[in-house]
Write a structure and sequence with these properties.
Helix content: 25-40%
Order of helices and strands: HEHHEHEHEHEEEHHHEHHHHHH
Largest sheet: 4 strands, antiparallel
Number of strands: 8
Shape: globular
Distance between the termini: 76 Å
Number of helices: 15
Radius of gyration: 21 Å
Structural class: alpha+beta
Strand order of the largest sheet: 1-2-7-4
C-alpha cells in the first residue's frame, strides 16, 4: 500500500525530494499565466504560447491522467549573496551540475518502476522541463510550499533552489495533498513573503513586479541564456557579474539561508569563470568546457557573446585578443557584439 511516507522514501533513494501529490484537471492559475503572456512578459520566448490547452489542463499530457507526483531536484551549491554581488563571470548554480534533463528522466523512470510494482496496471509519464506544464503552479497546490515574490516555488523549510519535475499517473493512488492556505502577504510557519521585498530589491534589473510576476524582458537570465541576438547596453554591467543565468533573487531570499547543499555531481567546480578562454573557445573547447551541463542552452555563440561583454565591461587587457578571435565565418551575433563594443568603448 502506498503512502506519502513510502513515496518520499522512494524519492530519497534517488536523491530527489518528494514535494507532494496533486489531482489533475484545469489549472486554477492559468488565467494568471495568460495575463503574463498578454503583457509580453515572455519576451521573445514564443514557445511559451504553444500548447495552451495542455498548459491549462495538464491531464491532457497523458491519456487518463488523474494525479501528478511533484519532484524537487536540489541544485544549491552554497553560494552567498555578498559573494555573488561582488563576483565576476559567474555561472548560475544549476548550470554547474551535470545536465539534469537526462538524469531526472532516468531517475523518474526508476521511480515509475517501483510505483508500478505497487500499483498494477499503472501508466505514467515523467515530465522534465521541456513539457508544456505550469510546474510551479502544480507544486504550489501541494502542502509543501507557495509561490513567492521571486515567482518561484518556495518550501518554507528548504527554500526555493529546486528544479521541478513531475510524474503523471493514470490512477488515483491515494488521497492528494490538502493545500495549506497561505496568505502570501503574511509571514507564517507555512509560508508567505509578508512585507519582505529582498528579491525585488536585489534583482539588478528590476524584473520582478509587485504582482508576483517576472518580466523576462528585464531578466538577466533571459538575456544571457535564451536570447540569441545582441544584448542591450543597459544589461552589460551585470553580464560581467553573471555570464550565464542569475541567482540573486534566490540568494537574497531569507528562506534560502538554511538550504541544504546539493549532493549532485558538479562539472563546473568554480562559481566564477575566466571569460577570456570562453570568448575565444572553439567548438572542441566548448564541448570540453561546457559539454554535459545546462550551460549549453545558451549555445557556444551565446556564451562567447556574454564573455566578450564581460571582458569589455571589466576593461580586461585581453579584450583585443578576444575580439580578434572572432572569425569571418562566426555567427552574426558575435560580429554585432564586436560592433557594440567598439561603439561603447571607442578608442581615443
Amino acid at each position: 500500500m502506498l503512502s506519502h511516507q513510502k513515496i518520499s522514501a522512494i524519492f530519497k533513494k534517488h536523491n530527489l525530494e518528494y514535494l507532494g501529490l496533486v489531482d489533475l484537471g484545469p489549472e486554477p492559475s492559468f488565467a494568471l499565466f495568460k495575463d503574463w503572456l498578454d503583457l509580453g512578459y515572455n519576451a521573445e520566448m514564443e514557445f511559451m504560447k504553444n500548447y495552451l490547452d495542455k498548459r491549462e489542463n495538464p491531464a491532457l499530457l497523458l491519456d487518463g491522467a488523474k494525479q501528478a507526483l511533484i519532484i524537487g531536484f536540489n541544485y544549491y551549491q552554497g553560494d552567498k549573496l555578498n559573494e555573488a554581488l561582488k563576483g565576476r563571470a559567474r555561472i548560475a548554480q544549476y548550470a554547474r551540475l551535470k545536465d539534469y534533463h537526462k538524469s531526472l528522466k532516468k531517475r523518474g523512470e526508476l521511480i515509475i518502476d517501483e510505483l508500478k510494482a505497487e500499483v498494477p496496471g499503472l501508466n505514467c509519464r515523467v515530465m522534465v522541463d521541456s513539457a508544456p506544464i505550469l510546474e510551479r503552479a502544480l507544486a504550489s497546490r501541494t502542502s509543501r510550499g507557495f509561490i513567492g515574490k521571486n515567482t518561484l516555488f518556495i518550501h518554507p523549510e528548504q527554500g526555493s533552489m529546486f528544479l521541478l519535475s513531475e510524474i503523471l499517473i493514470d490512477q488515483v493512488i491515494m488521497e492528494a495533498d490538502q493545500k495549506i492556505p497561505v496568505d502570501p502577504t503574511q509571514r507564517s510557519e507555512v509560508g508567505g513573503c509578508g512585507s519582505c521585498k529582498r528579491c525585488q530589491v536585489y534583482c539588478p534589473t528590476g524584473a520582478l513586479d509587485e504582482a508576483y510576476r517576472l518580466d523576462a524582458r528585464k531578466c538577466l537570465a533571459y538575456w544571457t541564456i535564451e536570447h540569441r541576438g545582441v544584448i542591450p547596453f543597459e544589461y552589460w554591467p551585470w553580464v560581467k557579474t553573471y555570464l550565464f543565468g542569475c541567482d540573486l533573487c534566490q540568494l537574497a531570499c531569507p528562506y534560502n539561508r538554511t538550504h541544504e547543499i546539493s549532493k549532485e555531481d558538479v562539472i563546473l567546480k568554480a562559481a566564477e569563470q575566466d571569460p577570456f578562454p570562453i570568448a575565444c573557445m572553439s567548438q572542441d573547447d566548448y564541448v570540453q568546457m561546457f559539454g554535459g551541463t545546462p550551460a549549453t542552452r545558451a549555445k557556444r555563440s551565446g556564451l562567447r557573446r556574454n564573455a566578450l561583454i564581460a571582458l569589455a565591461e571589466t576593461r580586461d587587457e585581453r579584450l583585443a585578443a578576444a575580439m580578434d578571435s572572432v572569425l569571418p565565418h562566426d555567427e552574426s551575433v558575435l560580429h554585432e557584439t564586436l560592433e557594440q563594443i567598439r561603439l561603447r568603448y571607442p578608442k581615443d
